[in-house]
Amino acid sequence: MSEIKVDTVAEKTSANGVTVDGLNIKDSKLVTANSVITSNVTDANITLAKLAGDSVDGTKIADNAINSEHYTDASIDAAHLNADVITGHTAETSIADADTLLIHDASASALRKMTKANFVSGIGGQNTPYWYAYGHASGQGSSSGTFTKMEATKIFDSSSAYDDSNFRWTCPSGQGGKYWVSIATQPYNTSVQGTGSQVVPYHNGNSKGNAYNASHHAISLFRNHWIMWSGIIDVSAGDYLEAYYFTVFNSGSGGAAYGKFSGYKLIE
Predict the structure, then answer these.
(1) What is the pLDDT confidence band of residue 127, given thresholds at 50, 70 and 90?
(2) What is the mean predicted confidence (pLDDT) over 218-231?
(3) Which residue range(s) make up the domain with 159?
(4) Mean pLDDT across the chain, nearest whole number?
(5) Cis peptide leading into 129, omega within 30 of 0?
(6) Domains held by the chain: number
(7) Cα(176)–Cα(237) distance, rounded to whole angstroms?
(8) Do 102 and 222 fall into the same domain?
(9) Are 142 and 247 in contact (CB under 8 A)?
(10) pTM to 2 decimals?
């Protein structure tokens, strides 16, 4: 058995190095191809610095090996999303108020979650508050040429804002805005002719306009005519609206029947 003493093996020339049992050593390096195998590498001993740039590609990564711990936050952009990222999920046919949607917050340049209830609260809306009141079918009398408040009793009132005791609708707190208001009635006169009629909305006790019929009609025709007013009134919280009518008749008595007074808030 031969023995090699320390520091006694050296190459004779600088060209070839030293070969020991088929393993060539030259200039302090192993130069024999494929001479280092996995069993000769200490576990967990290959550092990042020992890897060449772009040396690891998809063929060297196990399936399902990359999870959320291995990519930088906010690093997945639109170009790296599959086209079926939404359509590929299970279809849903209904949505509950507590269900969550993903939206982009433009002011923060960030993604945000929002419940369905909050999402739809900013889309469209309902024409509330609203009210509808109906007057006397048998007729409400008045003096000729005098504006008289229509005594209409509420049928619908979404905000409990219509008062049957004074026939007045008062705008609830936080509900100011533009309202579409409608008034209609049938004037009547117990004499042969009625001279004219009007219906007028009042806002905080002040007239907001009228519809006027100045024709002279026989009694049978006069009562068969509807007098109507409709339009937009800008209302603040605490303001009140009322409906007034006006008839003129040559003799006898008169008034109005089937009065209707209604309104609803416009969506802006």
Answers:
(1) very high
(2) 77
(3) 130-265
(4) 85
(5) yes
(6) 3
(7) 5
(8) no
(9) yes
(10) 0.59
